[in-house]
Structures are given as structure tokens and as C-alpha cells.
Write a structure and sequence with these properties.
Keywords: Sigma factor, Transcription, Transcription regulation. The chain is an alpha+beta fold and 307 residues long. Helices cover 55% and strands 13% of the residues. It contains 12 helices and 6 strands.
């Protein structure tokens, strides 16, 4: 097998490590590509290509994450990860854990960790690397890695919500939600939303967003019921789609361009949080991106003409 073939076999794993480290599809793809360049330039053949490339992509991601910290502190409004439609790394025996680790909520919790804690947690808890392997990747002793893992688990467990365990039940609730949303059914929406539900958006200062958020079942239900009919009138389409391993949707304008994505956090049979990503910089990997300001303006004009 050639180096290129070996690399392509490992690409899904490398991307999945980098994405969980960085919360960015674009940065993860760049980290994977840089890993290939370093592997291609390596004069000696590694004893384990998987170990070598996992170490390279993790170290690159740590460096990127350290430089990204300053940018995220200066970010306008809430920061969410770039939406991921499909995780290329598949392990049927651990599919539930892998899906949970890529959820918006989990990635936001990972943001609380130091770059080293994040690397240790991702490699050990998500991809089941041994502590010996983790220690080699991050250039720390096994004892230090065990300490880092313990600290990371403590941070993650303290903030981790208990998501709906039954995926079939969760997906059925999401289907009912999107059906009610399409129909503008305020009562049907209200029934599925937690009393203290939150609707929060990431526009990054480059797209309209819901102010600081919309809170409470009544407010969120009425906002949605008023929104979709007018969005549909201008040719908008809502496409239910799994996003970051969670029930979600992609919104397209009349030309088929991406307007935003949604993800739903579901707990105890109700929707607790709805996160929308509108920042055009985070949507380009999904296809051509719409001008959200234009979509909003057209929607408002439709509202005035039908009032």
C-alpha cells in the first residue's frame, strides 16, 4: 500500500480528531492536509502510520486552538462550532458515544478545556487511545495524562446535560416539531418546547440574529409560527437534517443557497435549546451561502404586504 493510500484510509479518523479539537470543519480539513504534507516529507517510515498521523494532526490542532483562543474571545455574540452534517469516522460499536461527542453542546463544553486537556480527552475518551499512546502524542508522562484526563472529565461532567437516551424517541419528537413548524401550529410547537427553552443564534456580527436570544416556550413558538409562512412565501425551504449528530435542519433561500442551520437539544421529551448558525463564514462547506440580510429584508417586506 502506498503512503497516499494509507493516508486516505486514515483520513476519516484524522478529520474526526481535528474537528473535535477545533470545532471547525475548515480548520480540521486544513489540519488534515498539513498532516499529509508532513507525512509525505517524512524520510523514514513510521512504525505505526496511525499513531504517527494521529500525533501530527493532534499537535497541529493544539497549535491552531491556542491561536484561535484570542479570536474567539473577541467574537461578536455567541460562538458555535461550524455545523457538521456527517462524521466520516464510523465505528458501529461506539456510534452513540461518537455522536454525543460531536454534538454542539459537547463541543461547547470542550471549549472550556485547555488545549492539552482537550487533546487528552478527545484521544482517550472519544477514540479510546491508550494512555501510553496519548502520552506519546502530547509529549507528557502517562501519569500527567491521567491527571489531565481526570480534570477534563470533571469539567465535562459538570456541564454535560443528560440528552435523550432513546434516539428513536428523540427523532420522532423532532419530526413532530418540524411538522408543527411547517404548519405554523403554535399550540403544537408550545407542547414540544420546554417552558424555559432557549433559541440562540451565532451570526458573528455578519448576519442577523435573534438579539441575545428568544426565551420561553410561548415566545419561541410564536416567533416560529410567524416566521416560516413568510419565509416560504419568498421561496425559502426548510430541510430537516441531522446536524452534529443531533436532530436539526438546514434552511435554503429561493435559489437553494444556505441561510442557516439548526440543532435541537432534547431532554425529558422536550426541546431544551435550539441553536442556529447564521455566520456565513461557518456555512461555506455546506454549499453556496445566501445573504441572510437580504433574506430577512425580503421576509419583512412580505410581512408588510400581507398585514
Amino acid at each position: 500500500m502506498t503512503r497516499a493510500e494509507e493516508f486516505e484510509d486514515l483520513r476519516p479518523l484524522l478529520f474526526s480528531i481535528a474537528y473535535r479539537m477545533l470545532g471547525s470543519v475548515t480548520d480540521a480539513e486544513d489540519a488534515v492536509q498539513e498532516s499529509w504534507l508532513r507525512y509525505e516529507a517524512c524520510l523514514t517510515e513510521p512504525s505505526s502510520v496511525k499513531a504517527f498521523l494521529s500525533a501530527v494532526v493532534t499537535r497541529i490542532s493544539i497549535d491552531v486552538l491556542r491561536s484561535a483562543r484570542v479570536r474567539r474571545e473577541e467574537y461578536v455574540g455567541p460562538w458555535f462550532p461550524e455545523p457538521l452534517l456527517t462524521d466520516p469516522y464510523q465505528d458501529p460499536a461506539r456510534s452513540a458515544e461518537l455522536a454525543d461527542s460531536v454534538s454542539m453542546a459537547a463541543l461547547l463544553l470542550l471549549e472550556r478545556l485547555s488545549p492539552l486537556e482537550r487533546a487528552v480527552f478527545v484521544l482517550r475518551e472519544v477514540f479510546a487511545f491508550s494512555f501510553r499512546e496519548v502520552a506519546s502524542v502530547v509529549s507528557r508522562s502517562e501519569a500527567a495524562c491521567r491527571q489531565l484526563a481526570m480534570q477534563a472529565r470533571r469539567h465535562m461532567d459538570a456541564g454535560r446535560p443528560r440528552f435523550e437516551a432513546d434516539r428513536a424517541e428523540r427523532n420522532e419528537l423532532a419530526r413532530r416539531f418540524f411538522d408543527a413548524f411547517r404548519e405554523g401550529d403554535v399550540d403544537g410547537l408550545r407542547e414540544l418546547l420546554a417552558a424555559d427553552v432557549q433559541l440562540i443564534s451565532d451570526g458573528g456580527g455578519k448576519a442577523p440574529q435573534w438579539g441575545k436570544g428568544v426565551f420561553g416556550a410561548e415566545n419561541v413558538a410564536r416567533a416560529f409560527a410567524a416566521l416560516l409562512p413568510r419565509f416560504v412565501q419568498i421561496g425559502g425551504v426548510m430541510e430537516p437534517h441531522e446536524v452534529n449528530g443531533q436532530p436539526g435542519a438546514i434552511f435554503h433561500d429561493g435559489d437553494g443557497k444556505v441561510v442557516n442551520t439548526w440543532t435541537l437539544d432534547i431532554l425529558d421529551g422536550q426541546i431544551q435549546t435550539i441553536r442556529t448558525v447564521l455566520n456565513p463564514d461557518k456555512l461555506g462547506h455546506l454549499g453556496p451561502v445566501a445573504d441572510a440580510w437580504t433574506v430577512l429584508r425580503e421576509t419583512k417586506l412580505t410581512r408588510r404586504s400581507t398585514d
